[in-house]
Amino acid sequence: MIRFLIHPSFVPIRASASLSLRLVPLFVIVLIATPVWAGALEDALAQFDVEQPRSVEALAIIDPAIKSDGATGAVPNPSAANKASRRDSAAAVDEAAAELIRAVQDPRPDVVLAQVERLLSAKARVDAGLAELFSLRTPLAAIPPADAQRSTLHNYLHAVSRSIELTGRLRYLEFDVFNNASAQLIAQTAARQKLVGLFLKYRSSVGAITMAEILADPAAGGANYNQPASLALRAKVLELIAATGETECLPALAGFVVRPGLPPALVLQAVETIRSVGLPQDVRPGQDPSLPTPAITAGRLHQVVTRLNLTGASVELQKHRDELAAWLDRRKRSGIDDQRYRWGGEDLEPGDWLLMRNPSPYNLFTDLSPGLFTHVGVVALERGSDGIQRMVLVDLPERGNRMPATNIDTFLVRSRHYLFLRHPDTEIGRRMGDTATSLIGNETEFDLTFRTDRVLELVGQPLADKKITTYCAGLLLLCALETGQSREEFFPIAEGAAGGETVDNLAQLGISFGRDFISPTGALFSPRFEVIGRREPTYDPRREVEEAIYDYFARQLAAKKLHTSPDLYQTLRLKMAEAARHNALLAAAMTAAQGVSHNLDLVSAAKAAAVVETLDDIAYGASGEFLKAQEAIRSAPADRRFERGLSPSQRAAAATYRQRHPRQYELWRQGQISRRQLRIELVNYYIAQGRAEIDRRFFTATAGSAAKKQ
Fold first, then answer.
1. Fewer CB in 10 Å around end: N or C, the chain?
2. Cβ–Cβ contacts within 10 Å for residue 531, how many?
3. pLDDT digits (tens, 9 = 90+) for 249-307
């Protein structure tokens, strides 16, 4: 693509032959200096915008080529042509944006800054479209529950998934572009100030993460850490972090605030930044030691603030210090002292619902698909055995036999994309939070039949010490119904199983979706809920591999007959589960060993576990292989220092992956393939490998024959 760019100063006020001739060389210089890809990003975005639905009416338009699902008659799918078009426009944005990695290596600071702003602007545009899509969610439940409603919901979920994927890829790309830009401008304090200003203008969370290194690196802001220019730059970075609420910056903030010799005003600004982003809570008594510990706590910050030397400081600064010290003292002594907890720049309250998005084999099992969210939890207040009140997340995972609670800040570290919903009635929210608190520690049984009637049996009863038999979204339903409101206020759309062979195949595993099934995605369509905060999604190539494999299994589950092929261990476990039906001691031993409820249907659990374990082995195995292959190839051309640091087995493994991917290895060694293209090719390879393994293990007659022989 060629863009004809003429600077305004080149345009003559009055035309003249001599002036026009003098302008020609300048014009040629500009033309040659313009990259061939200039404008490609904006053009791709324009096409992406054209395809973006802007109204419920646009979502309801059904392509004539769409075919209904034969089993339900209610779940249309976009035509192949439309899907290809949508993928192409999103891929074009991603591809054009990737060129900016090279563009920010320009030696001219103004060019670097201009390219950074192009990416910031592009992502802001996609994010605005995603926010607009979320605003369309609530009217959809009012569409009459017939084919038109299902097709509109289906189109909506595809559109949102598409936007989530694109903004996640752009965020992933931002790390490379912004790190390159920051390195290019490292010796130019004024230019870095402008870079931080750009990030602040667009409230870029990746920009905040990128520039947080300035807080720790003595050379990042100038030769002398305490030079005025360096301190001014760091103050600007603190302002950026506070504006974005980026929790990934907390470790950098924790290290910065305890650095000796900083001006007291800057220290207090850093403490305020931590308070604005979210001060981590003290570790909950009995917390799993494998969970991450907080970057900094109220007690440590209180020490920092009270030890500041404010001799000669202004009255305002001293008052500020005293207010922070008092707040930190209350926090370290009693924990959360009101009904709000600040995290990620948002105030969370008891009763808020957390919806999380992760790769999952269940994502396409219902007729409300593709599911946007796969797990849920309820925010609650808990007074610990140490007397400290914490804001926790109560959820019901598949494994375990007790209702867990985890500090909300600790829990959210494990999710790369989530949003919070809040009911506008504060009393209803409080009741849901109280219900969640009352369930902490209760005996649980994860219900693989996904029935909601078992929740209805609990409503209105004292829940203390009551066994909770449900699944993750059933926990939301229980908390909702305890408020006395109708189910439709929280889950306005009833769901069922996906069509085709899905129901019969799931029945083989003892899994069924009961009447009026609800999923984690279903709550999104309640007109009573407000979205109060979202974590920006970030693309992860490993998760792309895993999700593609899980989704392929679900699509095959609808299209083909399932033939399970458990391994020897899984077969033995199933036989023991069948024997345990008539042996109470064996049943008790098995439930204790697996950490599940003694009332669990062990046969159904064994069947389901065999499939889910095999699925996980395939998905995680493929993503792990991708990572190893990428590392083996990227280490070429062989760095002798790198090779010397490897064990003989590691060298042999690297050689194996290079031999498996000879073309990519040779192209990388010669510098003829980019990191992005290498990633794409390896991702596609391991997705294909995983899909082939899915077919071999689950959807061929030989798989079933092998299972019978065992």
1. N
2. 16
3. 999 999 999 998 899 999 999 999 999 999 999 999 988 888 999 999 999 999 999 99
Do 76 and 147 form a contact (C-beta atoms < 8 A)?
yes
- Distance (Å) of CA 61 to CA 50, 51, 55, 154, 487: 15, 12, 10, 11, 29
Q: What does the alpha-carbon distance between residue 449 and residue 467 come to, in Å, rounded to a whole number?
A: 16
- Paired tokens of 2: 């060629």
Q: What is the rounded CA–CA span in Å between residue 188 and residue 171?
A: 25
Domains and CATH numbers, the chain: 1-34 (no CATH), 35-272 (no CATH), 346-538 (3.90.1720.10), 542-709 (no CATH)
SS (H, E, C) 479-503: HHHCCCCCHHHCCCCCECECCCCHH
Kindly report each contact of residues 319-325 with a partner whose C-beta sits within 8 Å and lies 24 or more positions away, as own/partner: 320/268, 321/264, 321/268, 324/268, 324/271, 324/272, 324/275
Confidence (pTM):
0.84
Confidence of residue 7 (pLDDT cuts 50, 70, 90): very low
Which residue matches tokens 């009904």?
Answer: 339
The runs of H, that is alpha helices, within 425-494 are 426-439, 453-456, 472-481
What value, to the nearest 5°, has the Cα angle with vertex 529 and ends 525 and 535? Answer: 90
- pLDDT tens-digit series, residues 162-175: 999 999 999 999 99
Q: What is the CA radius of gyration of the chain?
A: 28
